[in-house]
Structure formats: structure tokens, C-alpha cells
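PROTEIN DESIGN WORKSHEET
SECTION A - STRUCTURE
LENGTH: 281
C-ALPHA CELLS:
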């Protein structure tokens, strides 16, 4: 997914594809959804009716891949077999873009969670080298997502300094997660707009926006299981003000409402994009 100087091209709203509503849209994809996102791990080996439905969707609609299990920050060996399989999968379905989390999810075995990396110079060099290797295999730049986290194993620099150093060293693109910035700002006591303003806006490929769970006034859990709240929508608008409008995708991973409700939130993305593209304040 490429950035463009055209506001019309940047005003694009996406939705994470879930099997629960695949049958509902395969014959008539909603006109309001410009692109879909899938976790390739969940679709690479799918066959049968669901596999045929997925192929029908990729033949008609634009897709991007968002990885869950590459564990780009891990000390384990990089799973190059997976990356090569991913490359074949993307070629088969005409998918041209891949993103991953700046985190790890394995250490001598799968951890089943996205773990935060230490904010250190050594970690910058380690993960940036692995990102470059993935890009060499795929033969294109990937995007790295800023994650939500609840503790930091080691800190020589701030979160934003670490993120920017990795992106610069790896020469990769950015998947900016607006909800993660908001969740982290509450949990770790920093200013979300200030953090946002320091993101490498020229590298933004697209964005995620999602809901979260309020455990306490000062503790939010990034669940992707509820509707997006107003402060997160406002932060998205601020991001457009800072960097111009970029493609933005709604994430909803569980507690899925009827498709019509998801499409309303996708339309809200489009509305915020139009507002920003028209220069409104």
C-alpha cells in the first residue's frame, strides 16, 4: 500500500476480514470498504468452501496482510520458511503489502501474546536487521506497527525514540495504530498528541483504529473487542492534521457486532477523512 499526494486516493477506509461475515459479503462486497486486511497465518492453508470464498474476494477486492506470529523482535532464529510461504501466498492472491508488530511472541516456543521489546540500542540493531532480511525476501518494504504494552523489560530510550530508531535503521514503512497510542498514553502517563507528532509521518503506509477495554481510569486493555471511542476518533483526526490523510482500517477481533455496525464505523473513518481532506478544523 503506497502513500500518494492525492487526497482522494488517501481517503480510503478498510476493514479486517473475519470468517464470521465472509459468506455475507463474498457475492456482494460492501461498496464502502476500500480494502481488507487478513492475518496470513489464518488463511494460508485454508481450503474447501472458505478457501474458494477467500479467493473470490481477493480477485475482486484489494487486500493487505498483517502478521501475527513472525516474532520479528525475538532472539529465536527468524522463521524464513514462513516468510517464503508468505511471499507465495501474497503472489497467489495479488496481495502487495505486509505489516507486522514491533514485538516478539516466541522464545524457544510460542508465547501466544505480543511481548514488548527492551527500548535499547542493541534491540534496535537486532530487530532492524531482521526487518531488513524480511524485506529482502519479500522484495518490498514492510510496515511495522507500534504496539500496546503494559511493562518495559529494559529502557535506554523512550518508546517513541525506540520506534523511530528501528524504523530508520530498517528503512521500513509504518503501520500507525491510533488506539495503541491512546491506550499507552493512559497506561504510561504521556501525552498522546505529543507522541503522535513525533511519529515518522512520511513513512506511514496505513493506520489501524480499534476499541479497547477500560479496566480502570488509568488502565486500559487493548482488546479490539468494542466500538471505537470518541477520544480515539479525535486522535485519528489529529493524525490527519499532522501528516495528511492516509488509508485507515477498522480492527475488530472478537465480540463482533452485526456487519452493519462495523460498516457504520468504517463510514466514520471515511467521514473523518473527508473532514480532514477538506481542510476543516
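SECTION B - SEQUENCE
RESIDUE ASSIGNMENT:
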Amino acid at each position: 500500500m503506497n502513500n500518494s499526494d492525492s487526497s482522494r486516493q488517501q481517503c480510503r477506509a478498510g476493514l479486517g476480514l473475519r470468517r464470521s461475515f465472509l459468506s455475507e459479503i463474498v457475492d456482494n462486497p460492501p461498496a464502502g470498504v476500500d480494502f481488507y486486511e487478513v492475518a496470513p497465518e489464518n488463511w494460508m492453508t485454508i481450503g474447501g468452501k472458505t478457501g474458494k470464498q477467500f479467493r473470490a474476494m481477493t480477485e475482486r477486492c484489494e487486500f493487505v496482510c498483517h502478521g501475527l506470529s513472525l516474532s520479528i523482535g525475538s532472539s529465536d532464529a527468524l522463521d524464513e520458511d514462513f516468510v517464503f510461504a508468505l511471499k507465495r501466498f501474497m503472489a497467489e492472491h495479488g496481495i502487495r503489502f505486509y505489516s507486522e508488530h514491533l514485538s516478539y511472541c516466541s522464545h524457544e516456543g510460542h508465547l501466544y501474546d505480543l511481548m514488548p521489546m527492551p527500548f535499547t540500542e542493541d534491540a534496535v540493531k537486532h530487530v532492524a536487521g531482521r526487518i531488513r532480511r524480511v524485506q529482502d525476501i519479500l522484495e518490498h518494504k514492510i510496515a511495522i506497527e507500534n504496539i500496546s504494552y503494559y511493562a518495559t523489560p529494559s529502557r535506554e530510550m523512550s518508546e517513541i525514540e525506540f520506534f523511530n530508531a528501528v524504523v530508520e535503521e530498517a528503512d521500513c514503512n509504518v503501520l500507525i495504530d491510533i488506539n495503541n497510542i491512546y491506550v499507552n498514553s493512559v497506561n504510561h502517563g504521556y501525552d498522546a498528541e505529543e507522541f503522535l507528532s513525533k511519529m515518522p509521518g512520511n513513512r506511514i503506509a496505513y493506520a489501524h483504529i480499534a476499541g479497547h477495554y477500560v479496566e480502570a481510569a488509568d488502565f486500559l486493555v487493548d482488546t479490539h473487542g468494542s466500538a471505537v471511542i470518541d477520544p480515539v476518533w479525535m486522535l485519528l483526526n489529529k493524525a490527519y492534521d499532522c501528516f495528511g490523510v492516509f488509508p485507515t482500517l477498522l480492527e475488530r477481533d472478537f465480540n463482533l457486532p452485526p456487519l452493519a455496525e462495523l460498516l457504520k464505523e468504517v463510514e466514520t473513518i471515511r467521514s473523518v477523512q473527508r473532514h480532514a481532506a477538506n481542510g476543516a478544523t
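SECTION C - NOTES
The chain has one domain: 7-277.
The two ends are 27 Å apart (CA to CA).
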